[in-house]
Amino acid sequence: MAKLSSINKNERRKKLVKKYAGQYAKLKAIADDESRDDTERLIARLKMAELPRNANPTRVRNRCELTGRSRAYYRKFKLSRVMLRELGNKGLIPGLTKSSW
After folding, report:
1. Which residues share a beta bridge with 79?
2. Close Cβ partners of 60 (under 8 Å, ≥ 6 residues apart)
3. What DSSP state is assigned to residue 4?
4. How far apart are CA 28 and CA 22, in angstroms?
5. Is residue 98 over pLDDT 90?
6. Shortest CA distance to 61 belongs to which of 44, 78, 83, 45?
7. Is 84 exposed, middle or buried (0-12, 13-18, 19+ CB in 10 A)?
8. Quick check: is 101 in a domain?
9. Quick one: which H or E segment has residue 28?
10. Distance from first CA to last CA of the chain, Å, rounded?
11. Which of 31, 68, 87, 99 has its CA 20 to 30 A from that of 21?
């Protein structure tokens, strides 16, 4: 199980990303649009830098829903490999079977 502080920190980041998503997307579109003037693009980048650091979507970490483990995460199940195997062996994940040949 991951530290509770790490899980909570990630949840706070998710809230901030959600809060600033529209503003961030608008500024990002302006900054990446090569047809715009360079000064306008620079101003957009500077405004992006003024947003909170944790408002950037890349700072959110995918974590297991049950344990909070951040590594070996399966997006399809929202679980780590450890929990996926454990629940799969118990038959709690529909359609998932242990392979054998």
Report:
1. 74
2. 10, 13, 14, 17
3. H
4. 10
5. no
6. 78
7. buried
8. no
9. helix 4-32
10. 33
11. 68
Q: Which helix (H) or strand (E) holds 99?
A: none
Q: Give the distance, in angstroms, between the CA of residue 19 and the centroid of all CA atoms in the same chain.
A: 14
Given this model, what pLDDT does residue 21 score?
94
pTM of the predicted structure, to 2 decimals: 0.79
Which amino acid, 69? R
Q: Give the single-character DSSP code of 57.
A: G
pLDDT at 1 over 90: no
The total domain count for the chain is 2
47 neighbors 27 (Cβ within 8 angstroms): yes
**57 shares a domain with 75:** no
Checking if the pLDDT of 76 tops 90, the result is yes
Q: How many CB atoms lie within 10 A of CB 6?
A: 14
User: DSSP class of residue 67?
Assistant: T
